[in-house]
Amino acid sequence: MQLPVRENIDKTVRLLVRSTGFLAIAILGGILFMLLWNTMAFFLQIKPLDFITGTQWNPSGDPALYGILPLLVSTSLVTLGAMVIAIPLGIGTAAFLSEYAGSKLKGILKPAIEMLAAVPSVAIGFLGIVLLGPGIAGLTGQSNGLNALNGAVLLAIMALPTIVTVAEDALHGIPDSYKEASYGVGANRWQTLIRVTIPAAAPGILAAVMLGVGRAIGETMTVLMATGNASAFPKGFFHSVRTITATIAIEMGEVPYQTTHYYSLFAIATVLFLFTLIVNMLGEYFVNKYRKYHSA
Amino acid sequence: MTDHPTKLSAHSVNLWFGNKHVLKDVSVTFPRNQITALIGPSGCGKSTLLRCFNRMHDLSPDARITGEFLLDNQNLYDHGISVTQVRRRVGMVFQRANPFPKSIYENINYGLKINHIPKTERQGIIENALKESYIWDEVKDELQKPATRLSGGQQQRLCIARTVALRPEVILMDEPCSALDPLSTLKIEELIVKLKKDYTIVIVTHNMQQAQRIADKTIFMYLGEVVEAGDTKALFEHPQQEMTANYVRGRFG
């Protein structure tokens, strides 16, 4: 092939690759712009203070109330509950797979757990309605079990595969030399796991947890189905809650275009976005903090 | 050699990894407060033998061991003997310096915590261990620094400090200098020689000069068998076996 032709191919490919890279940034920027633009339109009509401190979300009432607090508390409640369940369970499973399970058992268990991630969220939500809901209702003596706890358990199940897989990779990646050093000074398996292997794998485990949290905060369909969606201010795990994501999903379809209500949904989406951004940045911070012990 | 009774020994030891026969009827003795070097070409089983003495093979499910390993006439593999106790009495320094990804201080403190040494004594023990390992002057002002920031030679001395902090009776060293430059190697060798008044030392090395510089006794292994064992000087200058002669004169290996 002639040189100019090859150079032209090279140039074209470079251009192509670069434009795909920029495309991702452009899409992200576009979403951010759309969110912020509509959020601004909302705040031109509703005072930010009312939005942040209002304890009622009732856009179709008279007067219409746009307090994000109940939604924020709902989302936090469900996410927090999910993490309380999923983090110890996930790290425990990962530790078992990586340190205790034989290679045969691991060969069955790990793919099985990964398959869990492939179950559609609507199917998980269905489980919440027909199985978990009645169970919780029976245990607590309530008329139904569609509440924050239900959502938290389901989200924990959904976050587990991510946490287990990423955390197991992190634990597995710890060089044997660390473990040998620990055994060498007389530590047993448990001590080695808790004091050497897990701390050494901390960046990866934190990343796993952050991915899990991200999954839980953003999940919509499951919480929509399982948490009851009462718009009253949430009182606890055994009460119905309505998360930010569920609110957007429920109301977006019916809201008239470019009304205050329409804009308000963008405003709460922005809050959700900030939430996940903070989670990610915190994760990044901790990952870097631990990393300094690793680099030679 | 007569004033140095046997501290550690192996008798008729066979070891298999799966179907692979790695150690074949090996019997060796290591005198107290002496340095014994294990030499031999790669794959001759010297590291494998070394790791038997603090039961590191317990971690590999396909390893099978027969024979006796005695520390002061006590079999290290007896039922009822705790493996963590064995490892405390028989410490190990590995081929590649492997400090924990923690601070310098915490690297030594870890072993003390694990072995339930009271908090009030730890500070002193750590300082002592670092001094004993001739690294104190280099790190005393930065004990909270990550150990991974130290140079390779310093890391290895830290690992030795971590081992001596527990006051083991025997220290096993698996090619401790193979990843180090000549100057760091020299420092470690000086350290090893100084340590022998308190410890019984077994060192695996590929470096024949190193064996001659520091070892009182040398054992030559080949293909999983002990070919010859004896005083270092004698073994290197007047080897009894032709194979030993060929190896120590650099004709193979």
UniProtKB/TrEMBL annotation, chain A:
<feature type="domain" description="ABC transmembrane type-1">
    <location>
        <begin position="72"/>
        <end position="283"/>
    </location>
</feature>
<keyword id="KW-0813">Transport</keyword>
<feature type="transmembrane region" description="Helical">
    <location>
        <begin position="21"/>
        <end position="44"/>
    </location>
</feature>
<dbReference type="GO" id="GO:0005886">
    <property type="term" value="C:plasma membrane"/>
</dbReference>
<comment type="similarity">
    <text>Belongs to the binding-protein-dependent transport system permease family. CysTW subfamily.</text>
</comment>
<feature type="transmembrane region" description="Helical">
    <location>
        <begin position="117"/>
        <end position="137"/>
    </location>
</feature>
<keyword id="KW-0812">Transmembrane</keyword>
<feature type="transmembrane region" description="Helical">
    <location>
        <begin position="192"/>
        <end position="217"/>
    </location>
</feature>
<keyword id="KW-0592">Phosphate transport</keyword>
<keyword id="KW-1133">Transmembrane helix</keyword>
<dbReference type="InterPro" id="IPR035906">
    <property type="entry name" value="MetI-like_sf"/>
</dbReference>
<feature type="transmembrane region" description="Helical">
    <location>
        <begin position="262"/>
        <end position="282"/>
    </location>
</feature>
<dbReference type="InterPro" id="IPR011864">
    <property type="entry name" value="Phosphate_PstC"/>
</dbReference>
<feature type="transmembrane region" description="Helical">
    <location>
        <begin position="149"/>
        <end position="171"/>
    </location>
</feature>
<protein>
    <recommendedName>
        <fullName>Phosphate transport system permease protein</fullName>
    </recommendedName>
</protein>
<dbReference type="Pfam" id="PF00528">
    <property type="entry name" value="BPD_transp_1"/>
</dbReference>
<dbReference type="GO" id="GO:0006817">
    <property type="term" value="P:phosphate ion transport"/>
</dbReference>
<dbReference type="InterPro" id="IPR000515">
    <property type="entry name" value="MetI-like"/>
</dbReference>
<keyword id="KW-0472">Membrane</keyword>
<dbReference type="GO" id="GO:0005315">
    <property type="term" value="F:phosphate transmembrane transporter activity"/>
</dbReference>
<keyword id="KW-1003">Cell membrane</keyword>
<dbReference type="InterPro" id="IPR051124">
    <property type="entry name" value="Phosphate_Transport_Permease"/>
</dbReference>
Automatic annotation (TrEMBL), chain B:
<keyword id="KW-0067">ATP-binding</keyword>
<keyword id="KW-0813">Transport</keyword>
<dbReference type="GO" id="GO:0016020">
    <property type="term" value="C:membrane"/>
</dbReference>
<dbReference type="GO" id="GO:0016887">
    <property type="term" value="F:ATP hydrolysis activity"/>
</dbReference>
<dbReference type="InterPro" id="IPR005670">
    <property type="entry name" value="PstB-like"/>
</dbReference>
<dbReference type="InterPro" id="IPR003439">
    <property type="entry name" value="ABC_transporter-like_ATP-bd"/>
</dbReference>
<dbReference type="GO" id="GO:0005524">
    <property type="term" value="F:ATP binding"/>
</dbReference>
<dbReference type="InterPro" id="IPR003593">
    <property type="entry name" value="AAA+_ATPase"/>
</dbReference>
<dbReference type="GO" id="GO:0035435">
    <property type="term" value="P:phosphate ion transmembrane transport"/>
</dbReference>
<protein>
    <submittedName>
        <fullName>Phosphate ABC transporter ATP-binding protein, PhoT family</fullName>
    </submittedName>
</protein>
<dbReference type="InterPro" id="IPR017871">
    <property type="entry name" value="ABC_transporter-like_CS"/>
</dbReference>
<feature type="domain" description="ABC transporter">
    <location>
        <begin position="8"/>
        <end position="248"/>
    </location>
</feature>
<dbReference type="GO" id="GO:0005315">
    <property type="term" value="F:phosphate transmembrane transporter activity"/>
</dbReference>
<keyword id="KW-0547">Nucleotide-binding</keyword>
<keyword id="KW-0592">Phosphate transport</keyword>
<dbReference type="InterPro" id="IPR027417">
    <property type="entry name" value="P-loop_NTPase"/>
</dbReference>
<dbReference type="Pfam" id="PF00005">
    <property type="entry name" value="ABC_tran"/>
</dbReference>
